Amino acid sequence: MLSLNTSFKRSVPSLFKGIALFTPSGDLVYCIDPGKRGRWHLNLCTALQDLLELPEPPHFLVPCYTATLDRWFDAKTQQTRTFAEAYPPVFRYRSLLNAVFETDVNWQMAPPPEGLCDPVVIDQYQHQFPQLWENHDLVFRLEAELNSPPAFAQPSPPQIFASPYPQGYVLRLFVSGYSATTQRILQNLHELLEQSLESPYTLKVIDIFKHPEQAELDQVAATPTLVKVYPKPVRRIAGNLEDGDRILHMLGALEERD
């Protein structure tokens, strides 16, 4: 057993938000936060990085391997209410979740966000994060009083390739820090767009370490992820951005050229 920082006898607040993050092998890190503050998914990813000595926080596990419980006071009914949901890959751990959150509720299965939680995409990370596929009997509670934003390194300012025209494509590239890999992806993507798009475009690079709220808003769970914000519908590609035809198909640019 690697680490056990959980006592099922430890009382929990009457009103709180609980967030759990599992690994593909079933290890668990979670928090019980009466203040219901945000950014807990990032904190839990950082905790997994420290506990399992990972090369970087495993943001690609969010939201697929998460579960959330919210207990609040309903002023209209004057009663305490609870809502709990878990994504399909971790729905089978409902009994464990009830134990760590000291409750007995009927968990709802959260619908997978469109374009996310693809097992094939998740499995692509196994060679880089083999510890996540190894069971360590880990049940770790991250204390709420330690809830401060992670001290991430500040990368270089994001680059923006902006079009002077209001029409055209609006794209966002989500990355984990600014590195040589990020620069290579950005250069290849810029060349592809310059050569293939007949319409103007705006490409903005967003570091999820600096702007986690934007990643949550765009439902980004893995990096790199390219999101087509406009024209609608919103579409995204996560993981491998080397396939130019796949990117152009996502943008609808192949139809433009035909």
The proportion of residues in beta strands is 15-25%
Overall pLDDT metric: 78
End-to-end separation in angstroms reads 58 Å
Rg is 20 Å
By secondary-structure content and strand pairing, the structural class works out as alpha/beta
- Broad shape: globular
What is the percent of helical residues? 10-25%
The number of helical segments is: 7
In the residues, how many domains can be counted? 2
Summarize the helix and strand pattern as letters.
EEEHEEHEHEEEHEHEEHH
Which short descriptors sum up this protein?
258 residues, alpha/beta, Glutaredoxin, 2 domains, 7-stranded mixed β-sheet, 12 strands
Describe the structure.
With 258 residues, the protein is of the alpha/beta class. The chain has 2 domains: 4-146, no CATH class; 160-257, Glutaredoxin (3-Layer(aba) Sandwich). It has 7 helices and 12 strands. The protein has helices spanning 40-52, 94-100, 119-123, 180-196, 212-217, 244-251, 253-257; strands spanning 4-5, 16-22, 28-33, 66-74, 79-86, 108-109, 139-142, 160-161, 169-175, 201-207, 225-230, 235-238. The strands form 2 sheets. The chain has a 7-stranded mixed sheet, with helices on both faces. A hairpin with a 4-residue loop joins strand 11 and strand 12. It is globular, with a radius of gyration of 20 Å. The chain starts with a strand and ends with a helix. Mean pLDDT is 78; it is low at 1-10 and 145-166. InterPro entries: KaiB-like (IPR039022), KaiB_domain (IPR011649), Thioredoxin-like_sf (IPR036249). Residues 172-253 form the KaiB domain. It comes from Myxacorys almedinensis A.
